Each structure stands twice: as structure tokens, then as C-alpha cells.
Amino acid sequence: MLHIVNKSPYENRTLENCLRVITHEDGAALLLIEDGVYAATKGNIAENLLKGVMGKIKIYALWPDLEARGMQDRVIDGIKLVDYGGFVDLVAEHRNNQSWL
Amino acid sequence: MTEATGGIDFEEESAGVVKKFMFVNRKAPYGTIYALEGLEVVLISAAFDQDVSLVFLDDGVYQIVKGQHTKAIDVKNFSPTYRALEGYDIEKLYVLKESLEERGLTVDDLLVDVEVLDAAGMARLMAEQDVVLSF
Amino acid sequence: MKFGILVNEGLYQHQASDTAYQFAKAAIEKGHQVPRVFFYHDGVYNSSRLTEPPQDDRNIVQRWQKLAKEHNIDLVVCVAAALRRGIKDENLAEGFRISGLGQLVEVGIQADRLVVFGD
Hints:
The complex is a heterotrimer.
Chain A (H helix, E strand, L loop, with lengths): L1 E4 L8 H9 L6 E4 L14 H7 L4 E5 H6 L11 E3 L1 H10 L3 E4 L1
Parallel strand pairs in A: 1-2, 1-5, 2-3, 3-4
Chain B lengths: L9 H5 L5 E6 L8 H12 L5 E6 L23 H5 L7 E5 H5 L13 E3 L1 H9 L3 E4 L1
Parallel strand pairs in B: 1-2, 1-5, 2-3, 3-4
Chain C lengths: L1 E6 L8 H14 L3 E7 L20 H12 L2 E5 H7 L10 E4 L2 H9 L2 E5 L2
Parallel strand pairs in C: 1-2, 1-5, 2-3, 3-4
């Protein structure tokens, strides 16, 4: 399943609560969009959390949102960047998807 | 094709299609409208004979606690509606164990019967769904 | 592939409507279809005929209208949510229509994927 998170990890616990569940799923993918992309940046509070699950879950971030926020040069290694077309592909490729709002 | 279905030929294209619909509730009631309006979608979905599940996670578990009295805030108390779901054949209600525990709640605090799932069980249930609606 | 889209937030206040629009546009560019975009909660405000955003920024209502017209997208606004918030036929932008929640469930059944944009 493709899981979409759009909140900064500092704003609320959505990202950690999402990961708490989806790390139990085989083949889960996480896409960070909007303010959620801050979680994909080096030195942020969620960096270790994401690095810790990278082996289990594929992690993506929407680069237009990173670039809008001036965070494009700080992306954690191993996080794949996609544009809106890539976002569409991810939704198409996964049988189902969920937005963690 | 009818005005009501807005151009999609529902009868022809969807007849007999049954999908697994999951409604995800992660927000507390009253502070925002998502719980109430989310429930309104659930009720409408009953008319479509789909395979519907409701999950309550994180602050969403607060939606179904007993003892909600809203007179003093002068807002409609919609918590009885959760008890009415059974009458609409919507009976698959699930709660995340960790969400209850970290809020000091047990199933005895809830106003409807639910199945409690741990994170692994919740992940499994979610992965099975066709359509997931969050509010 | 057919994509259904649900927009749960109003225009400008949250990025949801923008992201939904960019997603819809990208899906169409890739040759997919977006048969319906359903607007719920504050999302109904995306259908207001009366918005006047500053000239130097995107016009969200017009963008949706244009995309819908060019690519046959059904822009549906939930009647209950709209009435709560004062969106009616008299202030509805062209290209949107007000209808019931059944339209959301229906596109969930009909489409291959449903994507939700909200807060």
C-alpha cells in the first residue's frame, strides 16, 4: 500500500503513528508531500526514524514540495524523489493507497 | 445515466461490484468537523452494499468514548450515531490497541462493540482494502 | 487508469487543493482519466463563484474549471457540506455541481484508484 503523509514531524505525530502501523506491512511505501517533506531532510527530528525503517519500507518525497521550501539540497540519502508524475505512477503501481490526515 | 449519478452510468458500470471500503478515523470529535462529516459518508456508503470497515486510530478513538454530553458547548452530540451503524449493516469496527492504551482507555470506555487490533493486525487489515477514505 | 479524487480542504488555506490539482493534471498528462473530483468538508469552498485572489498568484477556482472543461472532469460539491458553509447554486462557480455523498462512494467504486487530499 502507498501511504501518504503531509505533515511536518514537528507539527504532530502523524508520521510516527503511521510508521508504527505500516512497518508491519510487507511492501509498504511512504510518500512525503507538502509539509511532510521536512521529515525527509538531514538533521530533522524524524531522520533516525526514517533511516531505521528504510530497509523495510520504500520512502519517497515529492521534490516540488522540497524545492518550494528550500530543502532540496538536504534530502536524506536513500529517499527517492518524485515529481507529480511520479506521484501518479506510485498511486497507479500500488493496488491501494491511504492518506494519513 | 441520470442527473443524480452525474453522468456515470452507475447501473451498468458498477452493478455487482463490491469493494472493500475502509473509513479511517484519526481525529477527535468536536474540535474539528471531520469526525461528524466522516460519519455522514459512512452512513451513505451503507446504501451501496460495499464491504465497509471503520477503523479508529490515534485521536480517532475518542470519537467512540461513552459519556459525551454536548449541551454546554451547544453542539450536536452525534455519538449515538455510532450505535446506529449496526442497523445499517455496518458492523466491522476496529480500534488500534496502542491508541487505546496510550490514552488510558479500554474497550469498556467505548460506546460500541469493536474489535481491537494491534499494529500488525491493523497493517494487515489496511493492506486488504480497495478504497481508503480519510477525513 | 481512472483516478477519483477527494479534496477535503478549502482553497488557499491548505495546500490540499493545489496538490490535488497538480496530481490530476499530471495524471491526465500521463494519459489517465480523472472522471470525478469530489469536494467535501471545507473543500466545498473551491467551488465559490465569488473568489477574487490577487492577480499575481494562481486562481484556484479557474484552474479547476479549465482542467475540468478540457478533460471532462465532473467537479462535485457535497450538498450537506455546502449548505453548512453557505455554498449554493446562486454562488456556485460554473463547471461545478452540487450533489450528494453518493457521488463520492460511486467514484470509489467506479475508479481504479481514489486519492484523498486533506489536512
